[in-house]
Amino acid sequence: AQSVTQPDIHITVSEGASLELRCNYSYGATPYLFWYVQSPGQGLQLLLKYFSGDTLVQGIKGFEAEFKRSQSSFNLRKPSVHWSDAAEYFCAVGAPLSGGYQKVTFGTGTKLQVIP
Amino acid sequence: EPEVTQTPSHQVTQMGQEVILRCVPISNHLYFYWYRQILGQKVEFLVSFYNNEISEKSEIFDDQFSVERPDGSNFTLKIRSTKLEDSAMYFCASSPIAGGLGTQYFGPGTRLTVL
Fold first, then answer.
1. Distance (Å, rounded) from C-alpha B114 to C-alpha B83?
2. d(CA A30, CA A52)
3. Could you say which residues of chain A have pLDDT below 70?
4. What is the rounded end-to-end Cα distance, in angstroms, of chain B?
């Protein structure tokens, strides 16, 4: 069964600083990887996804993530954080199953605090 | 841009009561899902639904839970007799057929509070 580990529960960065959120996954085959963001009281918004191809994927709001198979990682990065990026970030892995659907397993999330 | 919608945004109920959470998936999507997030915990898969039947369910999805697509647009989650531990945010998601590689798009969630 697939699993996702987000080792950092809480991260604080200064506005304008760079950001990297860590994600490690466990899955036997090539995974489908996602990053979602959840603002307080809101739903889950997809930031970016990796299915295949280029291992560096670009997402919305200036985020990017790099898939590294050798490290089983899919870390999320942003070169310059804005105060509006304060939220909780979830890494997720999707396992394709017969019939076409997939089961998505989420990590425990990383709460990002942005200070002036 | 089309989006998944959920109603109500917040549901308060007494323990033992039945609740129905409603979702309207994106119109051309064919795969539907329910997840839940207990406060402070991670998002957990409950059930996936395709072609009018459950394709997979987690151990959380016991006999108290059921899902239905009563018409061409709605997708519902019913909890027959709510327990205190059912208090959580419930997210509906849908994905396009696209060979099963479709990304799951999530609704804003329904916060269920069981008293």
1. 7
2. 8
3. 96-101
4. 37
Question: Are B101 and A108 a contacting pair at CB < 8 A?
Answer: no
Q: Report how far residue B99's alpha carbon sits from residue A25's, in angstroms, rounded to the nearest whole number.
A: 23
Q: What percent of chain A is predicted at pLDDT more than 90?
A: 67
Return the pLDDT at A52: 82
**Contact between chains at B100 and A42 (C-beta distance less than 8 A):** no
- As a three-state string, the secondary structure of B60-113 is CCCCCEEEECCCCCCEEEEECCCCHHHCEEEEEEEECCHHHCCCCEECCCEEEE
pLDDT of res. B98: 47
Question: In the prediction, which pLDDT does B97 show?
Answer: 63
Q: Cis omega before residue B8 (within 30°)?
A: yes
Residue B7 to chain A, least CA–CA distance (Å)? 13
Positions in chain B short of pLDDT 70? 97-102
- Of A23, A105, A21, residue with least CA distance to B58: A105
Distances (CA, A) of B68 to A17, B23, B49, B79: 47, 10, 9, 12
Determine how β-strand B75-79 pairs with β-strand B65-68: antiparallel
